[in-house]
Amino acid sequence: MGAGPARLEKARRAVVAGGASALVVSPGADLRYLTGLPAPAQERLICLVLSADGATLVVPLLERDEAVDAVRGLPVDVAPWQEGDDPAALVASLLPAIGPVVVDDHLWAAHLLALAARLPERELRAAGPLLAAARARKEPDEVAALRAAAAGVVEVLAGMPGRLRPGRSEQDVAAETRAAMLAAGHSAVDYVIVASGPNAASPHHTASSRLLRRGDVVVVDLAGLMPSGYWSDCTRTFVLGEPSPEVAAAYAVLRDAQAAAVAAVRPGVAAGAVDAAARSRIAAAGYGDRFIHRTGHGIGLDVHEQPFIAAGSDHVLAPGEVFSIEPGIYVPGTFGMRLEDIVACTGSGAEVLTRSPRDLVVVEA
Length: 365
Ligand code: ZN
Ligand code: ZN
Ligand code: ZN
Description:
Layout: H1 5-17, E1 22-25, H2 29-35, E2 47-51, E3 54-60, H3 64-70, E4 77-81, H4 87-94, E5 101-103, H5 109-118, E6 124-126, H6 132-136, H7 140-158, H8 170-183, E7 188-196, E8 217-225, E9 231-240, H9 245-264, H10 271-284, E10 296-298, E11 305-309, E12 322-325, E13 328-331, E14 335-338, E15 341-345, E16 350-352, E17 361-363
Parallel strand pairs: 1-5, 3-4, 5-6, 9-17
Antiparallel strand pairs: 1-2, 2-3, 7-8, 8-9, 10-11, 12-15, 13-14, 15-16
The chain binds zinc ion (ZN) (3 copies).
């Protein structure tokens, strides 16, 4: 999907605009974005060397075929290195003779230090968010891939009431849910959060040996990777039996806050204003200090990427940006709740990609 000459050109322009002469991209979302190669980072050096002169994918010989397949039709050469070669020397030989070299934030230190040793007089710079703006604005086929990922995770969440039963452990539920994620088309599962009772007050609790009980509020947050390279991420909150009045009232606040943030999404609006739409409502209900994280994060080839929907952010939303809207309320020792959807900023508003009911799900227990 998508990797093409236009993306390589964008990267080249960003490098030149920053006054550098070359970019070294290590395995990860940026490499997949530019070349389509899904290779994971490893002790053998794999990287794309991009300069005004061209683009070359450096790979160990044993992975040459995958690299050649990935870049077929792209203006990218493949330079394999053999066991016993020094791949850092190969990369150094592909760089222009002068000018700063921009290096992917994710290049392993061992590879970076080997490269630095080969380039004693050169300035090496961290790429930082060099490609973030380009990656944040999704092309239509990327939005379609994120829509398909969202459909997969929504299907799994719809089956949760059948898995959440008193007496089962969070880990049991998580294992079954993980299998359902794969059955729904994911190629890998990043995390399965099943946070019950007091555990739900910890936003990134994963799953423990705690047994579910009647009356528990349970936060289920699922994220998985699709074969397309794009991520799903969605959260729903469940309650085993009728909710207490406090839980019901807090959830009403959360749902209203989340809907207000989704309604605030449109091109030209600051990400901080979307965060404020949710945060102001939660604060007005007295839970301001119980909403302890940003409202959302971009999603694409990474599960967390730009733009971040955070308090005070002056990032201006643009059509094609896809991100989560996921406010939460966390009362330590008692309960927690979160409501997360993935939305795409369209020309005039927001398209919610995770199409599923948003009410607190009451599970008969
Ligand atoms: Zn999170
Ligand atoms: Zn999530
Ligand atoms: Zn998320």
